[in-house]
Amino acid sequence: MAETLQHDLLAEIASLYYEQELSQSEIGLRLGLPRVKIYRLLKKAKAAQVVQITINWPMERDGILEEALCKCFSLDRALVLKSAPQDFGPNGSGLGLRRLGQMAARHLATVLHDGMTLAVCLGRTSYEVISAFSPVSQIQVNVAQAMGSIPSAIPDFDSAALARQLAGKLGGQILLLSSPLVVNSPEAAALLRSQPAIERTLQAARNADIALVGIGGITPETTHYIEAELVTTEQLSELEAGGAAGDIGGQFICETGALHPCTLNKCMIGLTLDELRRIPYTIAVAAGPAKVRAILGALRSGVVNALCTDQQTAGELARLAQRESNSAELRA
Asked: Domain check: are 247 and 189 in the same one?
């Protein structure tokens, strides 16, 4: 009850300030609170996401790099955001990620149609896309959770939370996966996947028309699996030494795009790499120098149809692809 009253107060103050454009002093006089208290409550409203501010940045894109990526990796679509190196930082998690999410959200709105099903995976980039997404009028799209949950570690970026948020904007049916992302053994994973409720959601995700995925790296800074305590830093280092480049949709892959032969992949509750490949249109959103190998693997996996990334990452991907092409010509 106390939490509800606090939320109501935050919403009322935010409405008076942002919608009715009263000053903090005027709000204080109306509610009988000191101005400094109003200031603190406005900050709390933003921190608690009672207020969410979206800045619609102009989306300048690099058409030359977009064409190069489509050619190099046989993509249906590439969207490359013009950016400066400091916009994203080494791990692709700077302020530029919000602009990248807006660009991807606009693209997503153009490809969704009434009656479709959209499969959603967890991650910071998916969160930014969904937060920036504006409801499309006169269509209803079902949303299926494509991988299990790790809510205690990343409550805002978890696939269940993202599926709920997006379903609320799209007005369709939501199919939640009542399962953790990782279990203790392949046998336990197989048993869990066979449960009717879980199989029903997985089947809906398999049959999705579109998937929205992020791409995780193979370092502690570029994956949520460390903070979720699903793997240790030592295990992550072993995966990298064994050829893993990162993960897409929770499945660890090599730089060649092949599924990595680790046991962890068999312990995941979610779509397999083969199942992701069969979805007609998959949008991947990722950026940052530290994720280049992971993105390269994802592009070679046969999963990705559309890539949303930044200028620096796109340039490095195109350079690596050209270098490999030149090497192949020399060998021939």
From this structure: yes
C-alpha angle 116-118-120 in degrees, rounded to nearest 5: 175
Q: How many Cβ atoms are within 10 Å of 26's Cβ, its own excluded?
A: 15
Find the helix or strand (DSSP H, E) in which 212 lies. strand 210-216
Same domain assignment for residues 197 and 308: yes
Q: Are residues 271 and 136 in the same domain?
A: yes
CATH number for the domain that contains residue 31:
1.10.10.10
The Cα–Cα gap between 299 and 317 comes to 10
The span from the CA of 156 to the CA of 141, in Å, is 22
Residue 217's pLDDT is: 94
Q: Which of 309, 304, 256, 322 is nearest to 121 (CA)?
A: 304
> What's the domain count of the chain?
2
pLDDT (tens digit per residue) in 30-83: 999 999 999 999 999 988 878 877 666 567 899 999 999 999 999 999 999 998
pLDDT tens digit sequence for 177-225: 999 999 999 999 999 999 999 999 999 999 999 999 999 999 988 888 8
Distance in angstroms (rounded) separating the CA atoms of residues 165 and 304 = 23
Partnered with residue 143 across adjacent β-strands are 118, 174
Positive or negative torsion for Cα 94, 96, 99, 100: negative
pLDDT tens string 233-248? 999 999 999 999 999 9
In whole angstroms, give the CA distance from residue 216 to residue 125: 10
Q: Could you tell me how many residues make up the chain?
A: 332
Q: Strand, helix or coil at 26?
A: helix
Buried/exposed 100-120: b ≥16 CB within 10 Å, e otherwise = bbbbbbbbbeebbeeebbbbb
Q: Would you say the pTM of this structure is higher than 0.90?
A: no
